[in-house]
UniProtKB/TrEMBL annotation:
Protein name: Carbohydrate ABC transporter permease
InterPro entries documented for this protein: MetI-like, MetI-like_sf
Organism from which the protein derives: Paenibacillus oralis
PROSITE patterns attached to this UniProt entry: ABC_TM1
Ranges for domain ABC transmembrane type-1: 93-304
Length: 319
């Protein structure tokens, strides 16, 4: 029988060159298209923010003309002067900081503790309690019952009305419980054999191992607490000393919608009312308010980015 094995030395040199050429072109083509796409994505993502900065640093009367892209045509700081002139803005800033820090820490600690409890198979009530929490994600009592609940708890016009309602989150509970389920049970059993109690197991083993998902949840909770203003409008609007930064910025933005008849904006910018009408407009004030509100979050995010990326991949890889 004739030997049908193909001798590699008999393969035409032209075919080998074509294969090698194709192997060299495909990676180059892929990386080129991928680079172009990523550059386009970066431009699309950064342009709105850079445009907002340019508008916030541009004279209001010139902004009305349009055509502001990445650089202001008439540079001015009057928009930021109008934002920061009120002394209440600084007190509101610290209220927002305290609210954000306390809400984040309490939410992370209490939600993780509850998630660990509900992840234990030996806990007989874990399913009905989980069902009750999940039910709250689909059904809400409404605004008026929520207000009367805060009133019955004596939280109206107090700082704790910002913190207490956000101490437990049903969505965060489900995410953290799912992550805890990926932790090997042998670690917990080993700790129990060594005599560790449930709280010690939670604090020494579960909590440190949940850092990636906790950093992700912390970022979500902090952004939500920082950007919230409606609860200040509902529960503490009668006490100026409890006003939050977002609520003060919202009031400033609302008042600037009619800049020509707003003496507060004119005085805030250090100008006469006529000059303010020419220099400070609702569009420019809105841009300045957006930058002031977003800068603190932008300063915190780089420190949590690596945990944020890991936390988003929770459950995406199964071994």
């Amino acid at each position: 029988m004739a030997n049908q094995t193909v001798n590699p030395q008999r393969v035409p040199a032209a075919a080998v060159n074509r294969r090698l050429g194709k192997g060299r072109i495909e990676p180059v083509l892929f990386h080129t298209i991928n680079t172009i796409f990523m550059i386009f994505l970066v431009v699309v993502t950064l342009y709105p923010f850079l445009n907002t900065i340019a508008v916030s640093l541009n004279a209001g009367n010139d902004t009305i003309r349009g055509g502001i892209y990445l650089w202001p045509r008439q540079f001015t700081l009057q928009n930021y002067k109008a934002v920061f002139v009120s002394g209440t803005i600084y007190d509101a800033f610290w209220i927002s900081v305290a609210r954000t820090v306390l809400s984040t820490l309490l939410n992370i600690f209490l939600t993780t503790m509850l998630a660990y409890t509900l992840s234990r198979r030996e806990y007989v009530f874990r399913k009905p309690i989980t069902f009750i929490f999940v039910l709250t994600m689909y059904f809400n009592a409404g605004l008026i019952p929520g207000y009367f609940l805060m009133k019955d708890l004596h939280l109206i016009n107090t700082f704790w009305v910002y913190v207490v309602p956000s101490m437990i989150s049903a969505f965060n509970l489900i995410v953290i419980r799912t992550y805890i389920g990926t932790i090997p049970e042998s670690l917990i059993e080993s700790a129990r054999i060594d005599g560790a109690g449930e709280f010690k197991i939670f604090w020494r083993i579960i909590f440190p191992l949940c850092k990636p998902v906790l950093a992700t949840i912390a970022l979500f909770v902090a952004v939500g607490a920082w950007n919230s203003w409606f609860d200040a409008f509902l529960y503490t609007s009668s006490r100026q000393e409890l006003s939050t930064l977002q609520y003060e910025l919202m009031k400033l933005l609302s008042s600037s919608m009619n800049a020509n008849s707003n003496p507060a904006v004119a005085a805030g910018a250090g100008m006469t009312q006529e000059a303010a009408a020419a220099m400070v407009t609702p569009l420019s004030i809105r841009a300045a308010v957006t930058i002031v509100a977003s800068v603190p979050i932008l300063l915190v995010y780089p420190f949590m980015q690596k945990y944020f990326v890991v936390g988003l991949n929770v459950g995406s890889v199964k071994e």
